[in-house]
Amino acid sequence: MTNHVDHSCSSQPETPPVLVAALYRFTPLADHPSLQQPLFDRMQRDAIFGTLLLAGEGINGTIAGEPTELRAFVDWLRNLEHDDHFPFAATDVKWSECAQIPFRRARVRLKKEIVTMGVDGIDPLESVGTYVDPEDWNSLVDDPSVIVIDTRNDYEVEIGTFAGAVNPNTDTFREFPRYVAENLDPEQHPKVAMFCTGGIRCEKSTAYLKECGFTEVYHLRGGILNYLERVSPEQSRWQGECFVFDSRVSVDHHLQAGEHSLCHGCGWPVTREMKADDRYEHGVACPRCAADITEEQRRRRRERQRQIDLQQSDRQPNSMLAPCSTPPSQTTR
């Protein structure tokens, strides 16, 4: 059973644009539950919204807040002493901006893994693929001897990916080992390059391939978000938008909120064209799932959306720190 501290945070006065930090760090934590309350208390104190996951293997999460407070929180995290050392000193962070808080609350959750593959013994600190900087990624993926694999899930690949990348057609990251077993072979695929949103899934996927006997395994340092930040659109091999795990749903090549929203019925991204379809109903269903829901489900979702709309209308319209309504999603990058 997953333990979590989960309390809603109150709205704050108008502030400068909101800053978002997607972060992770693989580091051994002998007593990670003891960090749950201190982290949550600090998030509450600084009005930091979002979710942090803690496990024996490290920390992962996406959080947001007023820029000064969020940067101070990350600095505090990096200087947090635990088990006589500073486990989060080298925490990887990707920054982006948002018009308002893309989360409803602050949460710190205890997990078995900070990114769930479901394979015991995979330790990125012991063995991991070769990191490739964004500036060198294009030349690698242009090499015809390299197979490029998108380690993300179907609903993420749907709205954007690198040109020529292979889609494993997975619903969750737990399915990735099966994809490898059924589709990859060290002799037939001597060079494998992988990428994900922020880099964390590739830490495990490349470690897993090394365990399976693959020798030349590469992954994009800092993931898609780092690539979009450091490679110009003119030089980019990226096509579409990048799915993110908050109410923005997607970001464009400038790391600004994209044009996608999320269907509350099936959880898949919804394009502008899909919204114009007669089968689309905000908060209820999209063309992908409209035929599969019952009238009772439709009624409940309409009522849920009505309550969400009422809550949003009660908030101060100019408060950037008033959190957006966010549909359920997992914290994985």
UniProtKB/TrEMBL annotation:
Its EC number is 1.14.-.-. The keyword Oxidoreductase applies. Residues 142-236 form the Rhodanese domain. Gene3D superfamilies: 3.30.70.100, Rhodanese-like domain. Keywords: Oxidoreductase, Transferase, tRNA processing. HAMAP family: TrhO. PANTHER family: RHODANESE-LIKE DOMAIN-CONTAINING PROTEIN 7-RELATED, THIOSULFATE SULFURTRANSFERASE/RHODANESE-LIKE DOMAIN-CONTAINING PROTEIN 2. This is tRNA uridine(34) hydroxylase. It comes from Allorhodopirellula solitaria.
